[in-house]
Protein backbone atom coordinates (compact mmCIF):
# COMPACT_ATOMS: atom_id res chain seq x y z
CA UNK A 1 0.00 0.00 0.00
CA UNK A 2 2.77 2.44 0.88
CA UNK A 3 4.56 1.79 -2.41
CA UNK A 4 1.37 2.51 -4.35
CA UNK A 5 0.93 5.78 -2.46
CA UNK A 6 4.52 6.82 -3.16
CA UNK A 7 3.99 6.05 -6.85
CA UNK A 8 0.84 8.19 -6.79
CA UNK A 9 2.71 11.10 -5.21
CA UNK A 10 5.36 10.88 -7.91
CA UNK A 11 2.91 10.57 -10.81
CA UNK A 12 -0.80 11.40 -10.54
CA UNK A 13 -1.55 8.92 -13.34
CA UNK A 14 -0.59 6.16 -10.88
CA UNK A 15 -3.34 7.27 -8.46
CA UNK A 16 -6.47 5.18 -8.11
CA UNK A 17 -9.20 4.43 -5.58
CA UNK A 18 -6.85 2.22 -3.55
CA UNK A 19 -4.22 4.94 -3.19
CA UNK A 20 -6.93 7.46 -2.30
CA UNK A 21 -8.18 5.09 0.43
CA UNK A 22 -4.66 4.70 1.83
CA UNK A 23 -4.09 8.47 1.77
CA UNK A 24 -7.35 9.10 3.59
CA UNK A 25 -6.17 6.88 6.45
CA UNK A 26 -3.08 9.00 7.10
CA UNK A 27 -3.48 10.94 10.35
CA UNK A 28 -2.18 14.17 8.83
CA UNK A 29 -4.83 14.06 6.12
CA UNK A 30 -7.72 13.42 8.47
CA UNK A 31 -7.73 16.77 10.23
CA UNK A 32 -7.09 20.28 8.93
CA UNK A 33 -7.11 23.30 11.18
CA UNK A 34 -7.17 26.86 9.92
CA UNK A 35 -8.85 30.15 10.76
CA UNK A 36 -9.47 31.64 7.34
CA UNK A 37 -8.96 30.79 3.69
CA UNK A 38 -9.17 32.79 0.46
CA UNK A 39 -12.51 32.50 -1.28
CA UNK A 40 -12.27 30.81 -4.70
CA UNK A 41 -9.93 32.76 -6.98
CA UNK A 42 -9.74 35.98 -4.98
CA UNK A 43 -6.66 36.21 -2.74
CA UNK A 44 -8.07 39.33 -1.04
CA UNK A 45 -11.49 37.96 -0.09
CA UNK A 46 -11.35 35.62 2.88
CA UNK A 47 -13.87 33.51 4.72
CA UNK A 48 -13.59 32.52 8.36
CA UNK A 49 -14.04 28.83 9.00
CA UNK A 50 -14.55 26.76 12.09
CA UNK A 51 -11.10 26.50 13.66
CA UNK A 52 -11.02 22.73 13.50
CA UNK A 53 -12.91 20.43 11.19
CA UNK A 54 -12.32 16.89 9.99
CA UNK A 55 -12.31 16.26 6.26
CA UNK A 56 -12.37 12.85 4.63
CA UNK A 57 -10.03 14.05 1.90
CA UNK A 58 -8.23 17.15 0.70
CA UNK A 59 -6.34 18.27 -2.36
CA UNK A 60 -3.42 20.67 -2.19
CA UNK A 61 -3.05 22.50 -5.49
CA UNK A 62 -0.16 24.71 -6.56
CA UNK A 63 0.36 26.66 -9.75
CA UNK A 64 2.90 24.52 -11.60
CA UNK A 65 2.88 25.18 -15.34
CA UNK A 66 2.04 21.59 -16.22
CA UNK A 67 -1.36 22.00 -14.52
CA UNK A 68 -2.61 23.84 -17.63
CA UNK A 69 -1.74 20.81 -19.73
CA UNK A 70 -3.27 18.16 -17.47
CA UNK A 71 -6.90 17.44 -16.71
CA UNK A 72 -6.85 16.92 -12.94
CA UNK A 73 -10.01 18.98 -12.35
CA UNK A 74 -12.40 16.09 -11.68
CA UNK A 75 -9.83 14.39 -9.42
CA UNK A 76 -9.30 17.61 -7.43
CA UNK A 77 -13.03 18.33 -7.15
CA UNK A 78 -13.72 14.91 -5.58
CA UNK A 79 -12.08 16.10 -2.36
CA UNK A 80 -14.05 17.70 0.46
CA UNK A 81 -11.44 20.43 0.96
CA UNK A 82 -9.24 22.03 -1.69
CA UNK A 83 -6.33 24.21 -0.60
CA UNK A 84 -4.92 26.36 -3.39
CA UNK A 85 -1.52 27.97 -3.06
CA UNK A 86 -0.23 31.03 -4.91
CA UNK A 87 -3.83 32.22 -5.46
CA UNK A 88 -3.97 31.62 -9.20
CA UNK A 89 -7.30 32.14 -10.97
CA UNK A 90 -9.30 28.97 -11.62
CA UNK A 91 -11.92 30.47 -13.94
CA UNK A 92 -11.48 29.03 -17.39
CA UNK A 93 -9.23 26.25 -16.10
CA UNK A 94 -11.74 24.05 -14.22
CA UNK A 95 -11.02 20.93 -16.33
CA UNK A 96 -7.36 21.31 -15.42
CA UNK A 97 -7.38 22.48 -11.81
CA UNK A 98 -10.93 21.94 -10.58
CA UNK A 99 -13.65 24.43 -9.86
From TrEMBL:
<dbReference type="InterPro" id="IPR038578">
    <property type="entry name" value="GT29-like_sf"/>
</dbReference>
<dbReference type="GO" id="GO:0003835">
    <property type="term" value="F:beta-galactoside alpha-2,6-sialyltransferase activity"/>
</dbReference>
<dbReference type="GO" id="GO:0097503">
    <property type="term" value="P:sialylation"/>
</dbReference>
<dbReference type="GO" id="GO:0032580">
    <property type="term" value="C:Golgi cisterna membrane"/>
</dbReference>
<keyword id="KW-1133">Transmembrane helix</keyword>
<keyword id="KW-1015">Disulfide bond</keyword>
<keyword id="KW-0472">Membrane</keyword>
<keyword id="KW-0333">Golgi apparatus</keyword>
<protein>
    <recommendedName>
        <fullName>beta-galactoside alpha-(2,6)-sialyltransferase</fullName>
        <ecNumber>2.4.3.1</ecNumber>
    </recommendedName>
</protein>
<dbReference type="Pfam" id="PF00777">
    <property type="entry name" value="Glyco_transf_29"/>
</dbReference>
<keyword id="KW-0325">Glycoprotein</keyword>
<keyword id="KW-0328">Glycosyltransferase</keyword>
<keyword id="KW-0808">Transferase</keyword>
<keyword id="KW-0735">Signal-anchor</keyword>
<comment type="similarity">
    <text>Belongs to the glycosyltransferase 29 family.</text>
</comment>
<keyword id="KW-0812">Transmembrane</keyword>
<dbReference type="InterPro" id="IPR001675">
    <property type="entry name" value="Glyco_trans_29"/>
</dbReference>
Amino acid sequence: EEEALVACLRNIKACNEDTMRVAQQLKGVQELSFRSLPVHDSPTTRVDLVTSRRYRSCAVVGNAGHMKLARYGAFIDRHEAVMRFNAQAVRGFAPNVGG
